[in-house]
Amino acid sequence: MTTSALALNGLVAVPVGFVLLAGLFARRTSDNLALGIAVLGSVVTFGWSIWLTLLAGSSLGDTDFDEAWIASMDVRWHLGVDGISIPLILMTTLIAACCLLSLIKHAPQCGGRVSLAMLLLVIEAGVLGSFLALDMVLFFVFFEVALIPMWFVINSWGDEHDPVGRRRAATRFLIFTVLGSALMLVGFMLVRSLTGTFDIAEIAASYTPSGSTAVAASLLIGLGLAVKTPLWPLHIWLPDAHAKAPTVGSVLLAAVLLKLGAYGFVRFWMPVTSVDWDGAPVVAALAVIGIIYAALACLAQTDLKRLIAYSSVGHMGFVILAVATFTVGGVQAAVYASVAHGLITGLLFFVAGAIKDRYGTTDLARIRELYGRVPRLGGVFAFAAIASLGLPGLAGFWGEMLAIRAAVDQSAALPGGTFAVLAVIAAFGVILTSAYFLAVMRGMLQGAPALGVPVQGAPVQSPSAQATTDVHAMEWVAWSPLIALTVVFGVAPGLLLAPVSDAARAFFGGF
């Protein structure tokens, strides 16, 4: 086996191997040792992703592995990486390691830590396989491996005060995503009937979509990916899933799993969609509607986790707007915004979980005076909030601005006037985003406590009874990489943009 083959296959095999090892030790020794093995597995996987990054070239052919898998169906075990997938792989392994590290200090209220850690590693393996897969059927298989364990995470380790609500949220998540996956698979089959292959690298190099079957395939694949991204109005599963999920579940769901849809749009939807198809402006319009809708919904939220969930709908709207421009700049914006959103929203959900641990709730009416009670925690929340609203100098700014610029400088085959209007509306969405985050910051960080406000499903605590422990060492360990990278990519966006540009030109042939 070549070095590239070992690096590619090992990236999926390592977390699976540590799942088996952790399960073995959990049965024979203490849970603490098994949890330590799971945490070690996430750290080793992160290191493995760095090794793969050092081996990767600018195009898929530079670092790939291609062997027959299901020969009778011409399905191949084809893995590869380039500048489009590498940033998402690194972000996935980093976020997963941060989640596993956080479990050392924060035991879930229901269920065991070891089982949860093992499920997180399975999800990580599925996501990494999805980012590596270059065969459509293989992508679908890994896609499902990443999604199904999340049902157990939400249902078994979610909101301990609302078992019925967390089961309903988990079931809605599974139904929506599985139905979306089924539509996507049908679309892949239609593409196979037109091209004679499931290999997306071959399709991107030689396939020219035309005819009603090609349109149907693009529509089905787009619908399947839109559910997972999520694109308005197929987002309705997301707020409840985030509100009921445990902290690490919310972090992985927002920072990693939503990126499967975004990545799928770039890698598997764009090559099978004609740039002059009338549906491209419709996709862009839905993305912009999602930006505005999410911002308005955030202004009406009373729960911190639901607010962050709705903000994710808006941020992913910028990603899909960029994809719909069919330009190299659009691909750059989509990948950059995906990474920025993963870092910042992952940090926001970590902080939301820490606030719930201390205040017993995420009800905004009862979370007050963070600066006075837990100043470091309040400072981290303020940093994440201003990064999410797009303050220049932080990663969130470039994700939004690059998407708007891509909409202004869209492909020549698309209606320029339509995209210019969408760019203006999206820019207005940035203003609304700033409005709701500033309002939340003012209330949470400085507002006076609202006594006597009931919290559904949780005991009401007076301010004197609330824990005031500030950020502890393990939280700093888990959060610091996200804080640092938010600053680094905000100051030096070229670290991401240059490799994505080279990969996009190689993959799409310089469209």
Q: Could you characterize the architecture of this molecule?
A:
The protein is mainly alpha-helical. It has a domain at 276-451 and 467-511. It is 72% helix and 3% strand. It is built from 19 helices and two strands. A two-stranded antiparallel sheet has the order 1-2. The two termini are 35 Å apart.
Keywords:
511 residues, mainly alpha, 19 helices, 2 strands, globular
The coarse overall form would be globular
Strand content: under 5%
For the biggest β-sheet, the strand order reads: 1-2
Helix count from the secondary structure assignment:
19
Give the CA-CA distance, first to last residue: 35 Å
Over the alpha carbons, how many angstroms does the gyration radius reach?
22 Å
Helicity level, as a percent range?
A: over 70%
Secondary-structure element string = HHEEHHHHHHHHHHHHHHHHH
In terms of topology, how is this protein built?
Layout: H1 3-28, H2 31-55, E1 64-70, E2 75-80, H3 86-105, H4 113-132, H5 136-157, H6 163-195, H7 200-206, H8 212-228, H9 238-244, H10 247-269, H11 279-299, H12 304-323, H13 328-359, H14 370-373, H15 375-388, H16 395-408, H17 416-446, H18 473-491, H19 494-508
Antiparallel strand pairs: 1-2
Helix pairs in contact: 1-2, 1-4, 2-3, 2-4, 3-4, 3-10, 3-13, 3-18, 4-5, 4-10, 5-6, 5-10, 6-8, 6-9, 8-10, 9-12, 10-12, 10-13, 11-12, 11-17, 12-13, 12-16, 13-15, 13-16, 13-18, 13-19, 15-17, 16-17, 16-18
